[in-house]
Design brief:
Elements lengths: L1 E6 L12 E7 L2 E8 L5 E6 L5 E6 L4 E7 L5 E8 L5 E6 L5 E6 L4 E6 L11 E4 L10 E2 L3 E2 L5 E7 L7 E7 L6 E8 L6 E6 L5 E6 L4 E8 L4 E9 L10 E7 L5 E7 L3 E7 L6 E8 L5 E6 L5 E6 L4 E7 L6 E9 L3 E7 L2
Antiparallel strand pairs: 1-2, 1-29, 2-3, 4-5, 5-6, 6-7, 8-9, 9-10, 10-11, 12-14, 13-14, 14-15, 15-16, 17-18, 18-19, 19-20, 21-22, 22-23, 23-24, 25-26, 26-27, 27-28
């Protein structure tokens, strides 16, 4: 298996990254292969469903780049396209492997890009502009993530005082890339919705709220695309009175536990999921073992969680304890500069 690490590279981001770093992962041992120098800030990555191509959005700019994945895991640059808005922050591939979908934060857009026969991306086929509270402003899209059927796209947006705190739900046409709005659910004022994860049965959606420092649980109807909020829990301990910025949200592979990372508090919140109701109960908090845990993910085919600590230049690894859901630090650290995203590709 190969792991690809996105990062920040610019002085404006106080970054130390140099490009997309590539690791070979064999028997849970990470071996550095190379770093592919790219356009600035290859901050979020996606791999197509054939495992042959990798796409990067370039944060703070307006660009998506395409790469062919070589047999040894290295990347060969292919092409670039306009992202339709400033600061693309997320990219995902549809179930038919025909389109990539991209959310832009300051651009306030979510757009579809056709995947060409050679694996590169064409110019945007469909663009949805997410309106703000007046014509001069937008709602700030922080993610675009599919439900399990692949027929609906969830787009959490942040208001930042001029837009709307919402999850927008779009129906997807996989032939044309067209997005049709079917639902939007308002969040608490100043909560700043960030990322969602979806349960395997497609009935439950969990949202991490960046400035609200919380997780919201929604019930989801895959027939209509409707979301119904049913619970909000804090991502910070009740005795902590400082600032926080919640960031990543992770389901364990048995879907018995949920995890959310907290920047500034530099911790991981742990929750038990009631298997009958989906409701969350706090298990506690552990240190992220570094500064600014911006991203987290399951390691495929394991009970490990990996967290990218952007300002410590490290990936830190934790094991999910099967009975309690508590995370145990594995005393395993991978060094990589200003990490912001990790994607895996089986060799």
């Amino acid at each position: 298996m190969f792991a690809y690490i996105g990062c920040r590279t610019t002085r404006e981001r106080n970054a130390r990254g140099k490009g997309i770093s590539i690791f070979n992962v064999t028997n849970n041992v990470w071996r550095y292969i190379s770093t592919v120098h790219t356009k600035a800030n290859p901050s979020y990555l996606a791999i197509d469903r054939t495992g042959q191509y990798l796409y990067a959005v370039h944060g703070d700019f307006n660009l998506i780049t395409s790469f062919a994945i070589q047999a040894d895991g290295n990347l060969q640059y292919m092409s670039e396209v306009n992202a339709t808005g400033t600061n693309p922050v997320y990219i995902t591939i549809n179930k038919s492997n025909t389109f990539a979908f991209v959310a832009t934060l300051q651009g306030g857009t979510v757009a579809s890009f056709p995947i060409k026969p050679d694996g590169s991306l064409g110019e945007a086929a469909s663009v949805q502009h997410l309106p703000g509270q007046d014509a001069a402003n937008v709602s700030f899209a922080h993610q675009c993530e599919f439900d399990r059927s692949g027929n609906f796209l969830f787009v959490p947006t942040q208001a930042r005082h001029v837009g709307y705190e919402r999850i927008w739900v779009f129906a997807v046409c996989h032939k044309t890339g067209t997005l049709t709005l079917v639902d939007s659910v308002q969040s608490r004022c100043y909560s700043e919705p960030r990322h969602v994860v979806v349960s395997d049965d497609n009935r439950r959606v969990y949202l991490v709220n960046e400035k609200g420092n919380s997780v919201t649980y929604y019930e989801f109807c895959e027939n209509t695309g409707r979301l119904t909020p049913v619970q909000i829990v804090s991502s910070l301990p009740e005795t902590y009175t400082g600032e926080g910025q919640a960031s990543a949200i992770i389901l364990d592979r048995r879907e018995e536990f949920l995890y959310a990372t907290n920047r500034l508090h530099d911790s991981i919140a742990m929750y038990r999921i009631n298997k009958h109701t989906g409701f969350l109960t706090s298990v506690g908090w552990v240190s992220a073992m570094g500064q600014t845990p911006r991203f987290g993910s399951r390691v495929p085919d394991s009970d490990e969680i990996v967290v990218a600590n952007e300002d410590s230049d490290t990936l830190q690894f934790f094991k999910v304890q099967e009975a309690s859901g508590y995370l145990t630090f594995l005393d395993k650290t991978v060094h990589t500069e200003s990490p912001t995203c990790i994607v895996f590709n089986k060799a």
